[in-house]
Amino acid sequence: MKKLYDTEHAQVTHIELKPGESLKKHSTPVDAFFYVLEGEGIVEIGGEQENASKDMIIESPAKISHRLMNESDSTFRFLVVKVPRQTEQTRLL
Hints:
- The chain has 93 residues and is an all-beta fold.
- Helices cover 0% and strands 54% of the residues.
- It contains no helices and ten strands.
- A hairpin with a 4-residue loop joins strand 1 and strand 2.
- The radius of gyration is 12 Å and the shape is globular.
- The two termini are 19 Å apart.
């Protein structure tokens, strides 16, 4: 995880998941979206899952549980953009 941009208005983080890696299910207090840079993965938001691939944007509403998983054989890289800037803690579920 590498924070690329962090102002009072927005945050952008670069995340890279190796094959078999995943983020823990969590919720954030602000809206976010994921922009896929490379590879393929699975995005789970609430009870729904969607396959994600390069150049896709997936919206993730505030306070809804979500996680991203890499079940492929290659690297899955994406940006997480949070608007407005998150001031409360992320909640692990």
